[in-house]
Amino acid sequence: MAGKELRIRRLFGEKKNLVISELGHVMAELGADLIKCFYTGDNF
Q1: Is residue 37 within 8 Å of 23, Cβ to Cβ?
Q2: What are the φ and ψ backbone dihedral angles of 5, each rounded to 5 degrees?
Q3: CA within 20 to 30 Å of 24's CA: 3, 17, 36, 43, which one?
């Protein structure tokens, strides 16, 4: 699991909470019934 977290940090840096949140909204708007995402800490 640590490898995935490091890749996300490298890609998004400090904005990872915002990016993951926005991606969740987009997937829901496209009709996803279930969304699996990373826990991003206190701002989840």
Answers
A1: yes
A2: -60, -40
A3: 3
